[in-house]
Design goal:
The protein is an alpha/beta fold. The protein is about 40% helix and about 15% strand.
Length: about 375
C-alpha cells in the first residue's frame, strides 16, 4: 500500500506509527462527512441521530475486539479510560496495585496521583531485560504479589520497550487470586489478535486511532458486567439519573457527557471495512516480518543486544533498540531536523530505546534511511556511544 493513501507528509520518513497512528484518506473523508452532517443540523444530529449512529459504530467493533457491545463505551484515549476506572476503585490505605516497570508514563502518573490521594501503593515490579521467555515475565511479575495486592494493572504491549506481555496467563492467575484485573491495550487492536472475552480481564482499554487507523481521539473501555454499576462517570452530565433512561445505566452514565464532537467514533464501521477490504491481516504480517528481520542488524549497528527473542511471541509491528546515549531528546530532534525521520527516542528505567514502527506505508527503504542516519550520527557526533 502506497504512502500516498495516507495524509502523512511525503518528505518525512515516518517510523512512529505507534505514538498516534496515521489515518488513511478514505477514513478521514468519512470523519469529515460526519462532522459536516453534525454542523448542518446540530440539534437533530445530537438528539436523534447520534444514539443510532453510536450503536451502528459499536456493533462491528464489538465483533472485532471480541465482546458484547453493551459492555464497552468509546473514550478519547486510554488515559481517559484508566482515569475513569481508577476513580471508581474503592481501594484503602496500603492496598496495592501490582504492575510492571514497563508501563506507559501517563499511566504511572495516573496511579501515582491516585495513590497520593488514597494511601494505596503502586508496585512497579521489575521485569528484567533481556526477556528470555514468557515464563520469566510471569515468574518475575508475581514476585511482587503480597497479601495486600488488590489490583493487577498491565499493559498488553509496552510503549517504550514495545514488548508483547503474557496478559492471558496473568489475568487467569489474578482471577484465581480474586484480584481486579485492568489491562492497557493501547497498542493492541489492529496490531495483534484481540478477543477480550477469552482474555477475561475485568477492564480493558484500547485505541482505534493507533493500529486500526481511525482518526485521532478514538478509543474504548470495556467493563465486565459485574463491575458496570460501580463505575462512576468521569464527567457527570445528562446521562446521570437520566430523564429518559435506557436499559443500561452503565452506558447512560458513560456515553452522555455533554456536547462534544464524536465523529471519530462514528467512523468505526468505515475503519473496519477499510481493514477488511485491504487484507490488513496479511499487511500486518508483512510489516511484522520487516520488524523482526531488521532488529538484530540495528542492535549490531549501535553495539547493543536485543531485549527479547526475535519472534512474534514478543514483537509485533514495533521494536525498541537499546541505544547508549545521555542525550535522548537531542538525538530525537537531530533525527527529525537533519534527517527528516520521525521516530521516538525514549528513556525508561535508566536505559534508552529508539523504537521503530512499521505499517503499510513503510518499506525496507525507510529503515535504510534510518540505518544510514544512525551510522552518520555515530561517525560525526558524540550523541551515540558504541
Amino acid at each position: 500500500m502506497s504512502k500516498s493513501q495516507f495524509l502523512l507528509d511525503k518528505n518525512i520518513t515516518f517510523l512512529n506509527h505507534g505514538s498516534f497512528g496515521a489515518c488513511p484518506k478514505p477514513i478521514f473523508d468519512e470523519f469529515q462527512r460526519f462532522q459536516l452532517e453534525l454542523e448542518n443540523d446540530p440539534v437533530h444530529f445530537i438528539q436523534k441521530k447520534l444514539p443510532v449512529y453510536l450503536k451502528e459504530a459499536k456493533k462491528p467493533l464489538a465483533k472485532f475486539i471480541g465482546c458484547e457491545m453493551e459492555d464497552f463505551f468509546f473514550t478519547p484515549n486510554p488515559t481517559f479510560a484508566i482515569n475513569t476506572v481508577m476513580r471508581s476503585l474503592n481501594l484503602q490505605k496500603d492496598d496495592e496495585i501490582l504492575t510492571t516497570n514497563h508501563e506507559y508514563g501517563a499511566m504511572d502518573r495516573t496511579w501515582n496521583f491516585f495513590c497520593k490521594k488514597t494511601g494505596a501503593k503502586y508496585i512497579r515490579q521489575e521485569i528484567k531485560l533481556p526477556i528470555v521467555s514468557k515464563e520469566q515475565i510471569i515468574e518475575e511479575f508475581w514476585k511482587g504479589y503480597t497479601s495486600k495486592t488488590k489490583v493487577v494493572f498491565l499493559n498488553h504491549i509496552s510503549s517504550s520497550t514495545a514488548l508483547i506481555f503474557p496478559v492471558k496467563e496473568i489475568c487467569d492467575k489474578a482471577q484465581e487470586l480474586g484480584l481486579i484485573t485492568i489491562v492497557d491495550g493501547a497498542h493492541v487492536p489492529g496490531h495483534i489478535d484481540l478477543n477480550i472475552t477469552e482474555l477475561n480481564p475485568d477492564f480493558y482499554t484500547g485505541t482505534l486511532h493507533k493500529w486500526m487507523l481511525a482518526p485521532k481521539g478514538s478509543s474504548f473501555l470495556y467493563v465486565k458486567a459485574a463491575f458496570q454499576n460501580d463505575i462512576d462517570p468521569l464527567v457527570v452530565s445528562w446521562g446521570y439519573e437520566s430523564l429518559f433512561p435506557s436499559e443500561s445505566q452503565f452506558l447512560d452514565y458513560q456515553e452522555y457527557q455533554g456536547t462534544q464532537d464524536v465523529s471519530q467514533y462514528l467512523c468505526t464501521p468505515k475503519v473496519i471495512e477499510f481493514l477488511e477490504t485491504n487484507n490488513w491481516e496479511q499487511i500486518s504480517d508483512d510489516c511484522k516480518k520487516i520488524v523482526r528481520d531488521n532488529y538484530q542488524r540495528f542492535c549490531d549497528l549501535v553495539n547493543t543486544k536485543p531485549i527479547c527473542p526475535i519472534t512474534d511471541v514478543f514483537l509485533g509491528q514495533m521494536a525498541s533498540i537499546p541505544i547508549k546515549t545521555s542525550k535522548p531528546m537531542e538525538l530525537k530532534e537531530l533525527l527529525y531536523t537533519k534527517y527528516n525521520i520521525q521516530i521516538p527516542v525514549m528513556p525508561l528505567n535508566g536505559s534508552v530505546y529508539i523504537r521503530y514502527s512499521i505499517n503499510a506505508y513503510n518499506s525496507q527503504e525507510d529503515l535504510e534511511v534510518l540505518y544510514q542516519a544512525i551510522a552518520a550520527i555515530i561517525n560525526t557526533t558524540d550523541l551515540i556511544e558504541v
